[in-house]
What does this fold into?
Amino acid sequence: MHKWFLEILQSPDLGNKLTLSDCNTLTDNGNGFVYPICNNVPSFLPQQEKENNTSNANFRYIDHYTKDAEVFDYHRDKKDKLTEASVAMLQKTVIKQVPKNTGLLLDVGCGCAYVAKHFVNTNVKVVSLDIAQVNAEKALQKYPAPNHAAVVADVYALPFAENTFDCIIASEIIEHTIDPQKFIAALKRVLKPEGTLIISTPYKERIEYSLCIHCNCATPKNAHLHSFDKNNMHKLHTNSSQKIEKIILVGNKLLLHTRAILLIKKMGYTVWKCSDKIANKLLPKAQYFIIKSKKTNR
It folds into this structure.
């Protein structure tokens, strides 16, 4: 385990420092909790507050996303060319928002680990975090580097001290969370003063439901629990004392439906970005939006 990574870790249960007991465990000397390490990925799912996994009786989110990662491989190449082009544009635009002076970056819900892929050959230290062990392990296996570490953890109980990271990316995560307000607050806690938080999420999504054959309850498609627009996102950030610097609409639906995005993609990112920006001004039907904010002193 990298020394720099061990130095920023702490127990998510009581906030105590950890000791590397052997190659397979981290120990909290304050209370004796032991956290396992598997394939160089420590798991910090909280041991003291089991309610973190049952805060909503209808949605056991830790269990759900652990199983989700086992069933769906987030690291495989997408076959749908339109989806691939749309996601590629979103990811490139997210990466462009990371400040140049970033030294330590947290990728929340790392999924296919596109953030680590971009930064492993730079001086930026990246922590790929996921609630599913399989996603975190694959991230580290695909992009092994001295400046890349991976961890399994719940955002509501992060294993890091206050004011740790220069920048945090949470791409396509907030719409899945039980409590978006607490989600932002949890990220803000581990963000340095004036640190940057970058969130991306579907824009004005109309959430579709189906009837689950197991529980006979209405179930949201893709497990999206919330839909966001500029107004409710501003409110969430204001309540969390995060100062929004920029909101970017990404992926115009007209360009997607006419398949023009495939042609524009071949012309390079600059043409792609300009075309998308013009289209969203003329017809504000974006697929996603990115919210870039700064941690204030309040």
In short: The chain has ten helices and 13 strands.
